[in-house]
Amino acid sequence: MTMKTMTRRASLFLTSALFLAGCTVGPRYQPDRMKLPAAFTEDEHPATPDEIARTNAELKEWWHRFNDPELDKLVDRAIAGNYDLQIAGQRILAERALRDVQASAWYPQVDANTTNGDSRYSLNIDNWPLRPGNPANRPGASYLSYGVSASWQVDVFGRIRRSVEAQEHAVEQTIEERRAVLMTMLSSLVSDYMVLRDTQLRLDISNRNIRVAQDAYDLTQRLYLEGVGNTLQIAQAKAELDAQLAAREPLRTHIAQITHALDVLMGQVPGTTEAELKIARPLPKVPDFPATLPSIVLANRPDIRRAERAYAEATARIGVAVAQMYPNFSIPLNFNPNASAMYQLFEAGALSWQFFMLASVPLMHGGKLTGQIRAAQAAAEASRLGYRQTVLQAFREVEDAMAAWHDDVEHTELLHRAAEDSTLASERARKLYGAGLVGFLEVLTTERTALAAENAEAVAQLERLQDAIDLYTAMGAGWQGVGVTAASLPVSLETQNVLARALKQ
């Protein structure tokens, strides 16, 4: 076959392949449309455009709404140093590399080779003279060869295209998973910080309780020495003092453990920030409720976005399975000149090459191919249902967080009033004691009651802060303001697939 004939056949083959390349088999991905309410049931009114814009701005870096510079610094350090976040980033790179592996099938696979050596044929085999190129007087020969072998698989029915499409969706899932890791890390760090400040506040209350118990113990001892009290009162006062001392130790331990947890979240050795964080700061105020919460905010949640991309990937996998039912076209090429002397390798007589256009058609595989299609279809349907379940679960989490935010307001207000009333009672008891109208034990009792009310209020304030953190997390807030990674691939499917580029698909 002449080079002209070979070129004509190759052109005809490629033209046919390009014509058929538009026949990418398998279903096209269509996003699942769920009928959802426009707003949450716990939201008070329909959202206006200005309120939606304000809510989006508030959710972008929601930890700033607590107005705590120390917290802001910890968040910045955690975003820069958290190891879970870095691990998630490496998973993105790994999936992108696998995407490049899939895309490599679009290109010719070319290998170069060379051979240099000697060979000798046996003279003790019958009919050996019949072997061409091996006369009896030359049983051995030197062999030199170089060449190129290549193969190009023409993606006529879109098997490679669907594989790359599926892998691109897998990359997008890892991006969303990294965003989810970021959200979880932010939620854990802010929550731990609030617990730290609350525990420090409760430690201060505990120290004041110990002082009150110590005063009560000292008073009962003095009264006993004056002949007014008895040993039972001394024992009771001592038991109260010991109980208050014992209650303080778990708080100290908890503070140390929380600082260690914060260090790990920031990618630091536990104990690094202990000196920095041991200085007690006021408990941050609960921010105002978001201006509005339309249901569209759930589009921020990485778990929903990941589930949607998983459905897209599973749909593309159907196309990969369907393409196995269609003919497969490939073009192998081998060019291997060979000779016994170096100067002969580049002569026309040394040329040796093969060029084919191959097509293989699946005929009988015992139901394997159709079974693969059914499995891919079932996996895609499972992904679609999983996406719906993720959306419903997200709605539930937001509704629960909103209900807790609203319902805990009254609870905290009542405890705040109780703390104020108890403090007022303690002040009045001291004034009455100064006037000689009540005993010192009454003063100590009212002080102990006031401190217990303060402690209950501190616990309720922490619950309110946690309600805010839970709501921001449930709405998928936080990753938008952080440059985690680009959501798009640097090389698109259209720019890399020569057939897709030629057909403008």
UniProtKB/TrEMBL annotation:
Membrane protein topology class: Lipid-anchor
Leader peptide range in chain numbering: 1-21
Cell compartments where the protein resides: Cell membrane
Main location class: membrane
Keyword Lipoprotein belongs to the record: yes
Pfam families hit by this protein: OEP
PROSITE patterns reported for this sequence: PROKAR_LIPOPROTEIN (PS51257)
GO CC, alphabetical: plasma membrane
Xref: InterPro entries: MdtP/NodT-like, OMP_efflux
PANTHER family in the record: OUTER MEMBRANE CATION EFFLUX PROTEIN, OUTER MEMBRANE PROTEIN-RELATED
Family: Belongs to the outer membrane factor (OMF) (TC 1.B.17) family.
Entry protein name: Efflux transporter outer membrane subunit
Species of provenance: Gluconacetobacter azotocaptans
